Each structure stands twice: as C-alpha cells, then as structure tokens.
Amino acid sequence: MPDSASVDTYAVKKEQWSSRFTFILAATGSAVGLGNIWKFPYITGENGGGAFVLIYLFCIAAIGIPIMMAEIMLGRRGGHDPVTTMKLLAKESGHSSSWGILGWLGVIAGFLILSYYSVIAGWALAYVPMMSLGNFSGLDAQEVNAVFGELVSNPITLMIWHSLFIIMTMFVVARGVRGGLEKAVTYLMPLLFMLLIILILYAIGTGAFQQGLSYLFNPDFSKITTEGVLSAMGHAFFTLSLGMGAIMVYGSYLPKKTSIAQASIAVAMMDTLVALLAGMVIFPIVFANGLEPGAGPGLIFKTLPLAFGNMSYGTLFGTLFFILLVFAAWTSSISLIEPAVTWSMKTFQLSRIKTSVILGLLVWLMGLMTVFSFNLASDFTISTSISTQYGEFVILKDATAFDFLDYLTSNIMLPLGGLMIAIYAGWLMKKEFSAEELKINPLWFSIWLFLVRYIAPLMVIIVFLNALGIVAFVRHIIN
Fold first, then answer.
1. CA 264 to CA 418: how far, in whole Å?
2. How many angstroms separate the CA atoms of 109 and 247, rounded?
3. pLDDT tens by residue, 147-185
4. 212 vs 1: which has the higher pLDDT
5. Rounded to an integer, what distance in angstroms lies between the CA atom of residue 348 and that of residue 340?
6. What CATH superfamily classification does 6-379 receive?
7. What is the CA 13 to chain-centroid distance, rounded?
C-alpha cells in the first residue's frame, strides 16, 4: 500500500498561487457570483429577512466550511485535475479508482453550468450599456418588463452577449494560474468590493437605508417556514461553489504551508460579506421606491432597473451596479471551466491556450441551447412525473433546455458531488492523511471530522431531497 507521500510521486510540477491571500481572493471569486448579488437578496426577501440570515449563517458553519475544507484538502493532496486527484487519493488509501467518478461529476457540472451561466451573465453585460445610455430613465414597470422581454426574445442579441462573456472568461483562463486567474482576481475582487461600498453610500442617501438594515438584520422568527430553512441550507451549500471541482482544482494550486482551515473560514466570511453588502445596497433602493423586496428572480433585471430609472443619479449608479454584477459573474465563470481545462490539458497533452480555445467553443455551442430556450425553442419543453398510489410526483414540468440544465446541475450533480466529497474525506480517507493536510489541533480536527461525517452529509441529503421535490411530496403524503 502506498505511504503518505505516494500521491506526490505522481504529481507533475505545476503553477501555484503566490500566497494564501491570492488563493483566498481566487476562491472567494469562485464563490461570489450571481448567486450572492442576484439570488441571496431575493430569497432573503421571500423568507422574511433577518431570521433567514441567522439560519443561513448557521448553515454556512455546519455545511459550507466543513465541506470546503474537505474539497481543498483533497485538491491539494492530489495535486491534479479532479478526476486524476480522486483516482490517486483512492489508490493511496486503498480504495477503488472508481472514485474518479467524483472528479468527473465536478468537471462535467462546471462545464454545463458555464454553458447557461454565461447566457445569464450576458444579460448583465447587456444591461451595462443600456443603463449607461439612460434606457430605463422614467420607464414604468410594464415598460421595464418589455425591455427585458425584448432582450431575451432576440436570439442574435443573446448570442452576441453570450459570446462576449465566453471570450472574456477564456481569455483569463488561457493565461494560466498566475498570469490569468491570479491577476484577474487580484484586480477584480478589490474592484468588486469598492463598487459595493460606493453603492452602499448611494443607498444611504435613498432615505430608506435604516429600513433596509432593519429588514436584513432584525430577526423575526415568526416568518420562518420549513421552506425558508431548506432554502437557507441549499444556498449555504451552493454559494461556496462546492461539489463542482472548482475548489478542488484551486486547492491543487495551494502551497503546502497554507492553512486550509483558515483559508476556508476566510473565503466563507468574505462570500457571506458580499451577499450581505449586496442586500444593504438592494433593499434600501427597493424600499425607497415602494417596491416588493421578495420579487423573486426578477428583482435584479426588472425591479432594480425600474428603481434606478426613477431615482436621482440612477443612471450612473445603476451602471455601476451592473458592472458589479458582471465582475461577480466573471470571477465565478473562470473557476467553472478550470477543472475541465486541467483535465483536458493532462489527457490530450495540449497547451493551455489551445485547450481554452477548444473548450470555449464547446461551451459556447452548448450555451446556444440556453439562448434558444428563451426564444426560438421556448415551446420545446420537458415534463417528467411518476405516478404513485399517493398521487403524482412531478419531477419536471414544462422545463425548457435552460430549466433542464439548471435542474440537472443544481439539483442532482452538485449535491451528489458535495455528498461524495464529505463521505470520502470523512469516512474513507485515512485520518492521518487528512490530519497531515489540515494541520489543526486535535480538538478542532475532531469537530471538523464530526461535522464532515455526520452533520454536513445529512444536511446535504436533505437539500438534495428537497431540490428533487421529494421532501414536499412526502409532506403531501403525510398531510
């Protein structure tokens, strides 16, 4: 059986992050995306504000940080792409090389997610010039909705913005770890925080800043429902980019001297901070205009443009907001494709530039499914259900290609990936190996091991079952 250093004998010499800080910036960039600035505010709005935030923070501590530590640990010890890493680690601990499937889940999930993520990010790109030219100034709700409808119904326009975002992403990835990924996050993440602070200063001047803070931070547990708790659990898992191989690959570039625990906590804190700051920007603007904070996905692309279009200096600050959204999407997108790039480079012995161009074209082609799902192929839908003695269990109903890809990756592939990471790191990897990588005192190691063995897997399973609609179906049967 291989000894504890056996994995290193397989590793090739490769680039590394120049410091712990750059890794934290990169991992935070991977975690911070549309979900923080787009999804977190509206699910907070839908679930009552402050009480939801507290539950979310508990879930970050119980699910997010333990699994992130596990994924970084696996990546650094393996030192390769997710597929090769899991095969080598399985061999090191005397298990089947079939654990490479976990790596495959991440590589494929990241590829598929980027294919539709780039289309949604393209919306944000499109809104930058529209906002800067004052296209939303003085419009009412119906007119703002019409602008958005015109954007998504035009396949040529969507293809142009989708193409531009893919080019932006692959340009960074093609330049390598230090020349591309590290440089990008070194500039983009500070700019992202700077934009957030500027927008918060603007939100303070709306006259509804105190109302926004109260909504975001004052807990009202009477508004918490089972669905709200499940939503907090799910978002705590998905927000940190877990289960898709990105954090594992970023971990493979992490120097041995860097503390995985400290880095994981720092990333989780920065990711959460961005989400909360985004809420501090969005809710005062929403309340100042008498709009609905729980407006759902339309909050960013319909509600906020309406607000900016009818506020003093709204054109300027609305433009800055959508630039912020683009930056957040950009830092996430480069991590989504990195697992596929590292695997392809090793497997086909191609340069990073050639690999990036080829994969960029493939992702672009896959993204056309999402582009057309909003217009030319919007009538092509998938519905799947299972009939039981207790009634019909609906899996998918009138799902477009975009809905299907989102369902497949978010509801099946990522939770499975996260669950497998927790199981392998907690139960199958030898304790001496994980202790060697984590380098934390015995008490904290025991706490981490308990969380990654029992609490995190249980909560991910609940998230998984809820995402599939099984939790709601069971509750329907019971009631």
1. 15
2. 13
3. 999 999 999 999 999 999 999 999 999 999 989 999 999
4. 212
5. 12
6. Hydantoin permease (1.10.4160.10)
7. 29
